[in-house]
Amino acid sequence: MTQKSKSLTSLALQKFKKNFWGVLSFWYIVLIGFIAIFAYVIAPDDTSNANQMHLSIHSKKPGFEVTMLKIPLEQELSSSFFSDLLFGKKSAYSETPITSYSFANDTLQIVEYASDGLDGIKKSIPFSKFSNASSSEEIEAAFISKQRFLLGTDKYGRDLLSRMFIGARISFFIGFIAVFISLIIGITMGSLAGYFGGKVDTAIMFIINVAWSIPTLLLVIAITLAIGKGFWQVFIAVGLTMWVEVARVVRGQIMSAKQLQYVTAARALGYTDFRIISRHILPNVMAPVIVIAAANFAGAILIESGLSFLGIGAQPPTPSWGGMIKDHYNYIILGKPYLAVIPGLAIMSLVMAFMLIGNALRDALDVKA
User: Fold this and answer.
1) Domain containing residue 68
2) Could you give phi then psi for residue 118, rounded to 5 degrees?
3) Does 51 fall in a domain?
4) Are 232 and 301 part of one and the same domain?
5) Strand, helix or coil at 320?
């Protein structure tokens, strides 16, 4: 008869599984992660940055549908699966929203879409523009189709759903990269300060207090301006500002743990300081660090959103949820608030998920409970 494992890890996992909101948040984060990784696979607009602009259909409501004409471009496109997965495809078509069309004398007669009751421009396009299509039936089947925008279009006529999917990459991955950087720096600095004490502790605490006294957003702006604007620069800047809290917690935990008997035994056996810290102390003090890391995920997402709103984050045409709010916050008073509310709700839900999973981890890892 086998006995169930009673290790602290298995007990914590069992407690976590009983937390409804923690489990729900975990699967929501997994879903957002899947969308972020495979954004270009599932997005309706799989071109790079979902940047297909159609100014004639700008700011349309969710569920808007229009007839779209695709005219092949003459340039040759070559790409790989991984390139398309990471960066999207290069546009192979010139897209034009149309109101109506007809065929006459080997030409396609179209009326371009125009909003607000205006008459669209009429154009004639010869069949020769459509490669591998010589009849009206082939052109109609291959190059004319109904296109529905489930979340509507932004102020440039781009598919808002596709931009949301690709923008999830910024908000999601900044959490991982920023928290990874903060953990590396914070654990290292906190371990040195807590274990060695004395002058080492004094010097590191001075650095921690100086970094702690500077407003986070101001420090991120300064670092961003120093190393430049862009995708990776924001990730690094946010990570370099979030290590302080990790360092303080690790320092306090190690100061308590180094007085325990197993550390004294490790020293008596002649183990090096590095081995004692990395193999014996840190594994026993990581529970609060894990909780802080979950909270820092949420903090990193909010900081990046704020930077993008200020125009310092990811630069256009790269989509980000904060940048989408910046582009459309004026529409809140113009009768189209969904253009700013949708990315705002996405940020709120992801931040809440990380906070809830952090609370669930805190309860699961509480040895006194």
Assistant:
1) 64-149
2) -80, 160
3) no
4) yes
5) coil
Joined together, the tokens standing for residue 177 give: 């990269």
Do both 272 and 330 map to the same domain?
yes
SS3 367: coil
The CATH number of residue 274's host domain is 1.10.3720.10
In the predicted structure, residue 75 carries a pLDDT above the cut 70: no
Q: For residues 352 and 22, give the distance between their C-alpha atoms in angstroms, rounded to a whole number.
A: 11
Same domain, 253 and 338: yes
Write the single-letter amino acid at 295: A
Structure tokens belonging to residue 170: 């910024």
pTM for the whole structure: 0.86
Q: List C-alpha distances in Å: 175 to 107, 222, 359.
A: 53, 20, 17
Q: Are residues 134 and 184 in the same domain?
A: no
Contact at 8 Å (CB) between 303 and 347? no
Do 192 and 265 share a domain, yes or no? Answer: yes
Do 194 and 251 touch, CB atoms closer than 8 A? yes
Contacts 24+ apart (CB under 8 A), 303-310: 303/216, 303/217, 303/220, 303/238, 303/241, 304/170, 304/171, 304/174, 304/234, 304/238, 305/171, 305/347, 306/217, 307/217, 307/220, 307/221, 307/224, 307/234, 307/238, 308/170, 310/221
The confidence score (pLDDT) of residue 367 equals 57
72 and 215 housed in the same domain: no
DSSP 319: -
pLDDT band at 3 (very low <50, low <70, confident <90, very high): very low
Contact 352, 293 (CB under 8 A): no
